[in-house]
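Input.
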Amino acid sequence: MSPATSQTPTTVSLADEEAVKEVLVDTLFGLWATVNNLTRLRPSRRERYRVTVFGSARTEPGHWVYNEVKQMCSALSAMNCDIITGGGPGLMQAANEGAQSAQASQGVQSVGIRVHLPFEQNVNPFVEQAFEHATFFTRLHHFVLTSDAYIVAPGRARNRARIHDDLAALTGPSSRRHPSHFRRPHVAGPG
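Output.
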């Protein structure tokens, strides 16, 4: 923080565009400095490994991809991994359902990290702990801070590319500590 910002602030007229720009720039840089500083905080120890699963919200129960994601997350949960998703329908629900089906005595958590959207459905019924964010950025940041690994299930190519770019931007040099696995899209089913 610069010495000028630690002094008592003076009133700035909205008619003084240059002064308004200076206030906005100083405030935004200060906010980013705060966010960057807070991201240095990490839990000292976690009870379980945490895996985030990204996937299409449009895949219906009974579809082979839904079943594969459910089975994969059941197996991960049986290995004492927490499962984290966006908390919505489709493959997110499959992942949370798989986590819940395997956790009878494990204590594994099925977590949903949501973003508030006016048209969005409720959290899927297999989420045990839900978080809600106002923006996609803070939600994605929550995924990065909470997760040890990422799995991107089949879905729309645009979504996979966006997820990859977002994770790369947020994890930066620390991406070696966050393994990612991108499944290739299948068109004819498993095989």
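The radius of gyration is 20 Å.
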